[in-house]
Amino acid sequence: MKTSISMGVFVVSLLSSLLMDVASSRKDHCHADDRAALLSIDAALGNYFSARWTSDDVACCSWASVHCDPFSGRVTDLYFAQLPNFTGTIPDAIAGLTHLTVLEFDHLPGVSGAIPPAIAKLSNLSELIITWTSVSGPVPSFLGKLTQLTLLDLSFNSLSGEIPASLAALPYLNGIDISRNRLNGALPPLLFSRLSHSSSQQPAYLRLSHNNLSGSIPAEFAGVEFAHVDLSRNAFTGDASPLFGVAKQLQYLDLSRNAFSFNLSGVELPEQINGALLSHNAIYGGIPAQFGDVAHLYALNVSYNRLCGEVPSSLMSGQSSSSDVFCFQHNKCLCGAPLPPCNSLI
């Protein structure tokens, strides 16, 4: 028995060593197609990397901003972040990196122009991050061709137009951040619909703050397991109560500075939620007593609405930072600590 176990350990060790050797040897080599694509990208960007990318005989997998799969040796990740004097448009030559899974342009204000159609050819892409740039134009509908996409972060740019309905076709997309742009129009009703019908029930993240989006919350969103929703500073209207629910996975919700109008009295918060920012809307009814029973609700703001009734005393006895009067002021007839006593309104 001991001999058998020892032989098994030896075989596993030998296989691991061989795999590491293969990975190391492949990493030391640069696939000709990837190298050509990277040099074309650099040329389109004014040879920004030429001194570092072509000096000596260093393989492209060791070049700055480049990461390769350790076994195949193919370029999988391309990161351009916080590079001084980095200017230009996103090169079409990106399409040559056929094994790319992560593409990131981050904190590069000199990058401008539209998101190029060449990106639609990156069939293996799982994360597309273009943030804090001067990229403009629409959020292109051809992003719906990226069937492996899980994260789309286009925040802090100058994008305009509507959110394309084609994003709803992406089966694995569970994170969308297009905040701080110039978007308008309504939310695609089937956004995250593929995710909501999957057996894995991956939580969804939606951040669209600081745009000019309008319309109501799609009824279909009631079936999406959101973990984080930020729709603040838009022009949304109507009923947002489908986002709430005691059985939801919701951890953070920001609906502030819109024109939502619904009865808060029948709303329930999930027990794990830590922030519910609802200020500057037209929400009516009262604050449910259940809000005070949520152990991790550290931030609640319902100011500047049309609420009435008494603030649940349990909200004042917990760890919530919402005990500040500013989190409740400017409502129709809300009363009780930290506001004036209810009998003072009679």
From TrEMBL:
Domain Leucine-rich repeat-containing N-terminal plant-type: 31-69
InterPro entries xref list: Leu-rich_rpt, LRR_dom_sf, LRR_N_plant-typ, PGIP
Cleaved signal peptide residues: 1-25
Gene3D superfamilies noted in UniProt: Ribonuclease Inhibitor
Pfam families xrefs: LRR_1, LRRNT_2
Nucleotide-binding listed as a keyword: no
Positions of transmembrane segments: none
Key words of the record: Glycoprotein, Leucine-rich repeat, Repeat, Signal
Superkingdom, natural source: Eukaryota
Compartments reported by the entry: Cell envelope
Family that this chain belongs to: Belongs to the polygalacturonase-inhibiting protein family.
Protein known as: Leucine-rich repeat-containing N-terminal plant-type domain-containing protein
Source organism: Digitaria exilis
